[in-house]
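queue> pop job 88
queue> type: inverse folding (structure -> sequence)
queue> payload:
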């Protein structure tokens, strides 16, 4: 099956993901960089002795997409005399190279929430729905909050006319959790408890160890 048409459905969805090239192709083209880039190019020519252009040893890998700022990589390789090519997420390439075995029906999540930190230690394979529960922060870039002063996942209930009311909402593993609160911090605490109970260790946490989006609790000096 040609890689440009070979796909696999992500677990629990009807979403197709493009199958990655064979591991030996990836290892021939790239090597680990030891930093947030994840990988850099190896010196490589598609047809040694015939190809004029090749990649330089240690040169950067990937270009940024305009939609979500994730890096993608264009790969061209030979199968016999036939040229095959495809475009893939850089994080999936790094993860497959680092782990060698990779269930490609999973998605690769950036643990720290930074889609451009492709160091192998920052990548983990989880289901599409598990990843969606951690995606709210990245979505703020594409879809800014109407009320940016409110905690993540909390919006003002504009249809409520008897005072102020806030809506807390998150979708995890295909299930929508929604509740109403008079206090936005209470709404954020509730969202954090939902993420903790449903995602467990997969729930993204900040530098203080709190679930992403949870209010920072005051500490005693």
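queue> result:
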């Amino acid at each position: 099956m040609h890689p440009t048409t070979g796909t696999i459905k992500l677990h629990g969805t009807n979403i197709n993901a493009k199958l990655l090239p064979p591991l030996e192709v990836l290892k021939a083209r790239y090597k680990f960089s030891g930093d947030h880039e994840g990988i850099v190019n190896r010196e490589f020519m598609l047809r040694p002795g015939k190809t004029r252009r090749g990649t330089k040893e240690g040169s950067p890998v990937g270009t940024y997409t305009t939609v979500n700022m994730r890096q993608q990589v264009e790969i061209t390789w030979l199968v016999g005399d036939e040229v095959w090519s495809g475009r893939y997420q850089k994080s999936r390439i790094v993860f497959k190279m680092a782990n060698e075995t990779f269930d490609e029906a999973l998605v690769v999540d950036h643990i720290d929430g930074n889609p451009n930190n492709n160091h192998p230690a920052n990548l983990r394979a989880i289901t599409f729905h598990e990843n969606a529960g951690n995606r709210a922060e990245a979505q703020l870039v594409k879809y800014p909050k109407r009320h940016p002063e409110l905690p993540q996942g909390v919006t003002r209930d504009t249809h409520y006319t008897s005072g102020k009311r806030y809506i807390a909402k998150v979708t995890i593993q295909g299930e929508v959790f929604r509740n109403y609160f008079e206090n936005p911090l209470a709404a954020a605490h509730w969202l954090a408890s939902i993420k903790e109970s449903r995602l467990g260790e997969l729930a993204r946490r900040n530098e203080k160890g709190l679930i992403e989006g949870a209010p920072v609790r005051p500490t005693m000096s």
